[in-house]
């Protein structure tokens, strides 16, 4: 096994881990955004802060700092992650040869697995190269250009990490991290009010 092949295996596992972490964070935030909205409204109500008036004056900033996510569910009732989160606009030429080699094994006309073939085809349509690479490993299809693929994987890992960090920078995530610490929660809301509305003296 070449050094580039070993590197590929390492990067591939890292990408799978980062994607899993991203999905976990998004799943947490689906509830956390709602929890934050409820908590800071209750906080403001107790202190007679005109939150509706402040929200109306700062509508665009509010929408940016407290994003809402529509929950979609698959046939098993599990919350789905939007496909566009993992779309990769890398030139598909890098993966067409690999697709053809895997298709020779999976195509139903040659006795292949119909479900797996659809998964393969969808990976090309959606440009989700991680699925294509997963199938290449599963069916022992050799990748000719490991060096180039490794560059793509490295960029994708960094992109997913950036998405994770962006999601974790939200006030909703900060409130979630407080768990049952009331002082921590109040400080998050104070910081939010100062940041969004320049309200209060939180520093």
Summarize the structure.
By secondary structure, the chain is mostly helical. It is 69% helix and 0% strand.
Write structural notes for this entry:
69% of the residues lie in helices and 0% in strands. It has 203 residues and is mainly α. Helix 1 packs parallel to helix 7 (146-168). The protein has helices at 3-46, 51-57, 59-65, 93-106, 114-125, 129-138, 146-168, 171-178, 182-197. The model is unreliable at 69-87 (pLDDT under 50). The chain contains nine helices and no strands.
Blueprint of the fold:
Layout: H1 3-46, H2 51-57, H3 59-65, H4 93-106, H5 114-125, H6 129-138, H7 146-168, H8 171-178, H9 182-197
Helix pairs in contact: 1-7, 1-8, 4-5, 4-6, 5-6, 8-9
Radius of gyration, in angstroms, nearest whole number: 22 Å
Helix content: 55-70%
Number of DSSP helical runs: 9
| Count of extended strands | 0
Q: Calculate the terminal CA-CA distance, rounded to whole Å.
A: 55 Å
* Secondary-structure-derived class: mainly alpha
Which overall shape is indicated by the principal axes computed on the Cα atoms? elongated
Low-confidence runs of at least 5 consecutive residues: 69-87
User: What share of the residues does DSSP label as strand, in percent?
Assistant: under 5%
User: SSE order in H/E notation?
Assistant: HHHHHHHHH
Largest sheet: none
| Arithmetic mean pLDDT | 83
Provide the descriptors you would attach to this structure in a database record:
single chain; mainly alpha; 9 helices; 203 residues; 0% strand
